[in-house]
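As a warm-up, study this chain.
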Amino acid sequence: MSLSLGKLKLDGKCHVMGILNVTPDSFYDGGWHFDSDDARKRIEEMIGEGAEIIDIGGESTRPGSRPVSIEEELERVIPAIEFITSISDIPISIDTQKAEVARKAVEVGACVVNDVGGLRNLEMVRAVAEMKVPVIIMHMQGTPENMQKDPHYDDTVPDIRNWLEERIKAAETAGIRRSDVIVDPGIGFGKNLRHNLEILGGLERFKDMAGGVLLGASRKSFIGFLTGADDSDRLTGSLAAAMIGATAGVDLVRVHDVKETRKAVDTINALGF
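Now compare it with the structure written out below.
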């Protein structure tokens, strides 16, 4: 049985998740949509560009970032969720590591929890189990403050698979169905260039783990290491990474550049990959 995220059904094709960071300090678009008018404009743009789900985050998780308070995160994300639900039935994902934020976000309209902390917080595990919503479990070695300080794996893809499997089993113990879990191998979160490339080359090995696979490679630094481009000039590299994901069978690509990615993904889907 296919996993549904609101009206979006994961049907074997690749789907586009648009990113909305209502933060002043995210690595690429920090500050662009921090103002409520700018956030509303970008929401409307992404819907028009073909986003199939919007992921809203109110706390930066770029390397070296520090947490914000629950109150501040709620003040950032709740108005954006309420605006989306007032104009569209597009599914909404809440990108948070805090159970309190996840609960309030779902209460006002989010239908998916995207936990970059990988359900390591027991309160978040309980919240997701009680709300009975799908959850994205992302792999991260360490925390945003220290994750890029000499990350190490004995065998990158198997190590990440094993870590994700442990988190899925913990979720199942709490009453969360494996079929309601989407795994994200966590490109750029406690990985160096070699690790990221090994993940991209091994995406198919995550397909049998749960209800779906998400790839988040948009505008990330490994593209800069490969191409020499700064984050403002990484569109082509981001599209290449998304196409690798689409051809490997990932269910969702989380992206900043919705219009361009949607056209590319539609082409891959039409070709039957």
